[in-house]
Design a protein that fits this description.
Shape: globular
Number of strands: 6
Oligomer: single chain
CATH architecture: 2-Layer Sandwich
Number of domains: 1
Distance between the termini: 28 Å
Structural class: alpha+beta
């Protein structure tokens, strides 16, 4: 973490379920090398935390506010949070995929890069695919698409 590390907690409301929303948040964390987590709450709200460089946090929040291709009516609410000094990963709790028919929940983990830099969205998607391939098991692993 840089000396200027900041943390935010947030919620997302709107059409944010079964549209790849937590995956999109994780891809932002990967691209901007941010720690934190994302999970679904029982009331169709996505809850997330992000921490890292302030400028990259703002870029990630802007992308989250734009939503995914399948989401709509997205509203993001954020507030400052306490930085966890030892946090070196971003985790999605209980990830499943409607489009891939993956119903077994997986905890997906991105470990922060040591260079603490930003990477392109394309490179972030490659890292995302590697996380899926190293986490999913059995038949679920066979359900991944070539571009995952």
């Amino acid at each position: 973490m840089t000396k200027q590390a900041q943390a935010i907690s947030g919620t997302v409301t709107g059409n944010d379920q079964h549209v790849g929303f937590r995956a999109m948040i994780m891809k932002q964390a990967i691209a901007y090398n941010l720690a934190g987590s994302a999970k679904n709450l029982p009331n169709d709200v996505v809850s997330f935390t992000l921490q890292g460089d302030e400028k990259r946090l703002k870029l990630a929040i802007a992308a989250i506010g734009a939503g995914t291709k399948k989401s709509s009516d997205i509203k993001v609410s954020t507030k400052p949070a306490t930085v966890e000094p030892g946090l070196r990963a971003f985790t999605i709790d209980g990830w499943t995929s409607t489009t891939r028919n993956i119903t077994k929940p997986y905890d997906l983990v991105f470990k922060l890069r040591s260079d603490d830099g930003q990477i392109s969205p394309e490179d972030a998607k490659v890292v995302w695919g590697q996380i899926l391939k190293s986490t999913l098991t059995g038949d679920d692993l066979k359900k991944l698409k070539p571009d995952d």
